[in-house]
Every structure is written in C-alpha cells, then in structure tokens.
Design goal:
Blueprint: E1 28-30, E2 36-38, H1 60-69, H2 74-79, H3 90-96, E3 110-113, E4 130-135, E5 146-150, E6 156-162, E7 169-177, H4 189-193, E8 202-208, H5 209-212, H6 220-223, H7 252-265, H8 275-278, H9 284-293, H10 304-314, H11 329-339, H12 356-370, H13 390-396, H14 406-414, H15 440-450, H16 470-480
Antiparallel strand pairs: 1-2, 3-4, 4-5, 5-6, 6-7, 7-8
C-alpha cells in the first residue's frame, strides 16, 4: 500500500521530533488552534501537486528565511554560506558535517535507539531504529558540539548545535522530498523504510525552532518545557545503565534489540553504519553529551536499573522474550506523572516495544525483500509492529489510556503542548487543556478539530502525537459540549 503522507519525526531528538494544509498555501504552518504562521512563498520551488499533510514546506526560500534571521552557529555555516550547500542524500549531509560512520572511533559518536517518546514514536523500534550522531565540544581541537538524528520513514533530519555567542542550544529540522512524493500514487513503505530513503533527496530545506514554535512540531515544548527564558535541554530519560531502549552490546536489553535488528536487516547498513558496527553499539556517547549539556535532572526520568529489575522479576524471559509484558512499580509512578500531563511521556517499561508475532512477520517480509522476492512497492509497512492491546499502546505512548474520564483524556493527550508554562504570545496558547478555563468558543473549536479525519492537518491531537481511542474521543467531545 502506498502512503500519500509520511509520518513525521519529533523535532525532539529523544533527545531532541507544522503541518501543511494540502488545500491551502504550502507555505503555511498550521498552529495547534487552527491558526497559521506564514513562511516565505514556496510555490516557485516545484511543490508536489498534493503535499503530504504531515510535512512542513520544502523550498529554498524557507532556508533563506532562516539565514536572513541571522545567527552564528554550525548549522548556519553549512546552509547560509555564499556557496549554497548541495545535499542530495544523508551521506552528503554527513560529509558536510565531517561525520564518517565508518571511521574507527564510530563507537564514540553514534548511538541507536529502539524506542522513543518523541514525535517519532510511531516510527521507531528495533526494526526501524533512530540513529543519532553526536559530537562533544572540544575547543582545542576545533570541534563544536552537535547532534544529528535520522530515522527512515520521516523524510526529516533533526539537528542541534550551539549558538556561538550565547552558548544556547539551537534546534533545527531538515526536510526533504523523494521522487515518490511527486508520483501519482505517493510513497510506499519501501520508498521510505529501505536504503531508498537515504538518497535521491529533493527540495532539501532548513527550518529552525522559531519557524515551528506555533505548530504541531514545536521542539520547545520538550526542550524548553518551563517556557520562554528558561534553560533548554537535551533529552535522554534513560541516563543510567543499562540504558533501556538503546542498542548497547554490553547490556542484555541492548543485545536483545541488536539481535532483532540483525535478524531483520542482515548486513544492510543504516545511515552509513554497517551491521558489524551496529553489533558493537553503545549508549555512552549520548549519555555523556546530555550530561555535559544539561546538568539538571531530566524531567520525569526513567530509572533503568530499578525498572528493568522489576520487569524481569515479573516476566523472567525479559528482555529477549517480551511475549509476556513486564510490570514495574517504579515505572508506574513515572507513568502516572506523565498521564496527568505534568511531564513528557515516560518510555515503555519493557526493552522491546514490538509485538512478537508482528515482528516475526515483518522480519520475514524484509528478508524476502532483501532476497529480491518482494519489490520495493510490495514491501509491508514495518511501522505496523506495535501491540494491538489498547493499554499497552497507551503505555508505549501511542494512545490515551482506555477508561479515562474526559479530564484524564484531556490531560494525557493535550496538556504537554497546551499549558500556561509555554509561550503565551502564540495562537496555540488560546487553548489550555483545563476544562475550568475553556470558554464556549474554545470548546466549539476543539470539538470541530476533534471531529476531523486524521489525515486533515488541522486534526487534534495531531496524528503523530498521542492518538485518542474512539472511547476517549467521544468522552472528550461530550464533555466539551
């Protein structure tokens, strides 16, 4: 099945995760309350006849707007130079940033994640992991801090670097198109989830956090959760060994994730990282970067040692066999904090987020593809790999918890982006996820947005955020009435 729209990443690089309205100006980012923010005219750049509804605009004019805004950072050095940077593949970007996935020190500057609670949660698993290249600041060696995150299927790359004068973190999003975006049938999973996704890029565009602040891709709601004027931070909730959800050959969980990936992908490289390098991946580079850049404790941290111990006690076959989901009292405490909207979602309690039967089927399908028995167009969607159980989906961060009352649904689905801590100067602030402060006009607008089909860019919650169960949606609509 081909997809007319792609699911976006987080502008948060789990450490870090605008939607365009296909019926409107492609240079508009749709805000969370339906308002739009105008970006430079992209019409001259040859937009697809039907832009995917979850994709931000892609056009050189938008990159030019970022450059005209001014700033002094590593990313602008690349995109705002007198000679424009020519990027047609992930390898081109890596070359421009002096990232060499094959050099001997690769185990010091690449980390791989099999789960995230960022906006790319519906894309990332051991079958389709996120790769993050990191570099610590080394002034004496002329090296600046950066992190670059890539996951197949999203047609985006996330970057973070320092503003040189202030030392503040700056977050960026690169978007691109592929040939399939311009084809009548759109992009198939094979176009987006194989090596095809890493080259043949078109309309490569740079957007900055400022461009996305009033959109569904706002990175500041995760990286500046206390609002304007407060410190920004990188995100990694599992900062203590065994670093649950991160590929790491020194831990049981890390080896379990690596084994699932190799079973499916064999010797196929990912983002230039070979299978041999994948099998000696470690989490330490990101731990070091996040600890150095963000001295504060992570909001709602994931207590990996305790949670994994409790999970294994409840389900002894974990982490290699997750057919019986684990349980953890420590995890439950963190989950309840997130459920009431007091912090970002906590990662899943088990190492693996995949359904065993679905993973086995996807593995067989991909092996057939690698053997030439299945074409790119015929390849199944590897992202349809999570459990069907509604409660497990809520615990993974994909949906709201079944059985919640309307207030609970509102808090779990909406409060992270719609709260008084965030920027009150943007239109999204007109809606606060609290029934006690919502007027009739706000309630009517919310009902209208809740009733839109998921492929409408104005639909709330945005489909790449936590989705509502049918029960939860109806309870919310009834309460808003």
């Amino acid at each position: 099945m081909r997809l007319r729209s792609t699911r976006l990443a987080a502008l948060a690089l789990s450490l870090l995760g605008s939607c365009t309205d296909p019926t409107a100006n492609p240079a508009l980012l749709v805000g969370s309350d339906g308002a739009v923010a105008t970006l430079p005219d992209a019409s001259s750049a040859g937009q697809p006849a039907e832009p995917p509804s979850y994709m931000p605009p892609a056009a050189p004019a938008i990159t030019g707007a970022v450059c005209e805004r001014g700033g002094d950072d590593l990313v602008r050095d690349l995109f705002c130079a007198d000679s424009p940077l020519q990027i047609e593949s992930l390898a081109d970007l890596q070359h421009a940033m002096a990232i060499d996935p094959l050099r001997n020190e690769v185990d010091r500057n690449v980390v791989i994640s099999g789960h995230t609670t960022a906006l790319s949660a519906r894309n990332v698993s051991a079958a389709n992991p996120r790769v993050i290249f990191v570099q610590r600041e080394h002034p004496g060696e002329g090296r600046e801090m950066f992190a670059v995150a890539f996951v197949r299927g999203e047609q985006t790359v996330e970057l973070v670097a320092h503003d040189r004068p202030s030392g503040e973190l700056r977050f960026f999003l690169i978007t691109y198109r592929q040939a399939c975006n311009y084809a009548p049938a759109g992009c198939s999973p094979g176009d987006l989830l194989t090596l095809e996704a890493e080259s043949g890029w078109r309309e490569v565009t740079l957007l900055e956090e400022e461009d996305l602040k009033n959109s569904a891709l706002d990175c500041r709601q995760c990286h500046q959760p206390d609002g304007p004027g407060t410190p920004k931070l990188l995100r990694m909730q599992e900062r203590a060994r065994p670093w649950t959800h991160w590929f790491d050959f020194t831990t049981d969980g890390g080896r379990a994730l690596i084994a699932d990936y190799i079973a499916m992908k064999g010797d196929e490289p990912l983002a230039g990282v070979t299978a041999a390098r994948m099998q000696v991946a470690i989490a330490a580079p990101l731990v070091g970067l996040v600890s150095h850049e963000s001295q504060e404790e992570q909001p709602n941290p994931f207590d990996s040692p305790r949670i994994e111990t409790e999970v294994r006690a409840s389900a002894p076959a974990q982490p290699f066999d997750n057919s019986i989901p684990g349980k953890s009292a420590a995890w439950r405490v963190a989950y309840e904090v997130a459920k009431r909207g007091a912090a970002i979602a906590v990662p899943y309690h088990d190492v693996k987020v995949t359904d065993p039967a679905k993973l086995a089927a996807a593995t067989a399908a991909y092996r057939s593809y690698l053997a030439g028995e299945v074409t790119t167009d015929e390849l199944a969607d590897l992202r349809d790999i999570y459990p069907d159980d509604a409660m497990l989906q809520a615990e993974i961060g994909l949906t709201t918890e079944p059985g919640l009352d309307a207030s609970g649904v509102l808090r779990q689905a909406c409060l992270q982006c719609h709260n008084t801590r965030l920027d009150n100067a943007i239109s999204r602030a007109r809606f606060i996820a609290d029934f006690s402060v919502l007027g009739r006009e706000q309630r009517d607008r919310a009902i209208e947005r809740l009733m839109l089909p998921p492929d409408d860019p104005r639909a709330m919650p945005p489909p790449h955020h936590r989705a509502l169960t049918a029960e939860g949606r109806q309870r919310l609509i009834d309460a808003l009435r």
